[in-house]
Amino acid sequence: GEGLPRPEQTRVIVVANQKGGVGKTTTTVNLAASLALHGGRVLVVDLDPQGNASTALGIDHHAEVPSIYDVLVESKPLADVVQPVPDVEGLFCAPATIDLAGAEIELVSLVARESRLQRAIQSYEQPLDYILIDCPPSLGLLTVNALVAGQEVLIPIQCEYYALEGLGQLLRNVDLVRGHLNPALHVSTVLLTMYDGRTRLASQVAEEVRNHFGDEVLRTSIPRSVRISEAPSYGQTVLTYDPGSSGALSYLEAARELALRGVGVRYDPTQAHLGV
Ligand code: ADP
Ligand code: MG
Fold it and tell me: How many angstroms is it from 270 CA to the middle of ligand 2?
């Protein structure tokens, strides 16, 4: 790969939207793989009990596998659960197992219940450029742990009716966490997913999202692509499943834009690279 400027400090990016099916997991794994292919060292933290991000990265996550549950509830070091992702150099995953479904309740009675992931990340000593946290479709203690651990929130938005509905609640939670627990937290990035520019609805929603969020919205949007939706069933990201597909190229470009913004370089869409 061509290589991109690396951030001075690890960027911890929380991928959140309490609506299900908007492309959180797809965005997490494909952006992470793209950033790794661009030369970064990247960790995906799977914080959804469904373990879809782990599956999509080809990471074993049956009930016996050491997982993010052990980190959050049993205080196991993060390094003990991180696995390298096959086929993508520089990409790692802390998997989720089904145990995590109980963590939402188990965390309630633990000390520092909101900051257990933050502590685990702070104690992780391997050098990383990015940590991407895939959140469940809810605003419970798991998502709160992610918001306390991160500096940035990335909101994937699917361009359909009611796309913005419910986001107010996420934004209020971001404000609450910023005010009480994590002053650095901010919404840095909005990404339009499953975008079909040929439909009037999609372009209307995109315009509404750009009016609402302004510069936070990446210039690059992710098209609806069958290759993107097929890749997880092969335990692969679209970047290795079909590297030349429009889906793969769009995630590579979104990753480039995200990386350039992180070092304050203005992104010029007319200079889009169609590849690594
Ligand atoms: P979430 O994590 O927000 O619930 P997912 O990432 O699991 O959402 O995506 C929901 C569904 O949409 C999945 O079946 C996924 O494969 C599919 N999907 C996501 N992004 C795209 C895309 N760009 N093109 C086609 N299908 C997509
Ligand atoms: Mg998901």
Answer: 32
